[in-house]
């Protein structure tokens, strides 16, 4: 058996039991693995449905351009369908999203426009506004508007809900879904609640989003809105696809808990999933008192971990945000393990001869170069030697004439692995600012810290 094109492989994704990360939950916990879709995410389902419905209604015409605001996954689904069906794609997104998502969209021939995150939806710079403007300006274009296009939730009513019902043989008691556009949770919930009104539908929200408070109070509180890191869930407005009447409870999860759980799932279950999956599993653990033995809990795993390699799966990215503290040495540890020695610098107007004398007298091999107290470059023994061989008279000239790029600065939380990778024959040290003082870390300092 074969398929006529890749779009026919969308859906019928597996349901997999979780064993280790959910060991403290008395219920059976199952993961709906949507990464087996061709675009590696659940958004393939609704992307194709929105396109097919637009074709039927005449909104999307042959040779047209699809323009959408997307964090990446919907764009991927749209881009794949566009390749098969012969459409162009222009996507707007936010600078919060991972670079890997943008690279993936461009791989399918889409144009990606990156817009600022921290602006109101009505701001002309927002990715919502830019996509709407482009729809007006680009001839023969169509904007799916995944947030308010009810074909989104209808796709899950027709596909995701029935699949879960059949795969659990109707035994599902709880559905856990991260809520962004609201299409997945609302469409799936509508189908499942028609089959069994007692099924509990639990939405995962993030701090900085409006969903939870709106569900509980009916108030759209703009004071709830602030920037957050978690990708794929939460919003600062109310999409029409979010049917609050179908959602029994919202659970908020912190950026840190979501990021760390994303990694835990890979390491404990062997499932390489994305950031919103980490949120959903962390939220499920927070709600463990809602579940009892015999319950069957289904968690949607929306997308693949490859789109987060530079973020949640990167130790240094996590450390920079204070999310990860492990046993590895950092710049702060290296500085603490070395004897304090005031860093020697030299002003850029000093002569090359003065630099040579400083290096000789202090028995050092490199000196940061300053201008008005600010580090602007460096000078090393090899820099001086190369310059003297080429022009012996350079000894009387200011060192700014032979100064090379400065040693890179790192912060105190930078790992020893990253620092080691930055030190090489062309760059023999890094600089660290510690409480207003500049410290230098060399290869010798790293060796000393490891062996101390």
UniProtKB/TrEMBL annotation:
It comes from the Bacteria. Residues 335-396 form the CBS domain. Keywords: CBS domain, Pyridoxal phosphate. Pfam families: CBS, PALP. Its cofactor is pyridoxal 5'-phosphate. This is Pyridoxal-phosphate dependent enzyme. It comes from Mucilaginibacter sabulilitoris. The lineage of its organism: Bacteria, Pseudomonadati, Bacteroidota, Sphingobacteriia, Sphingobacteriales.
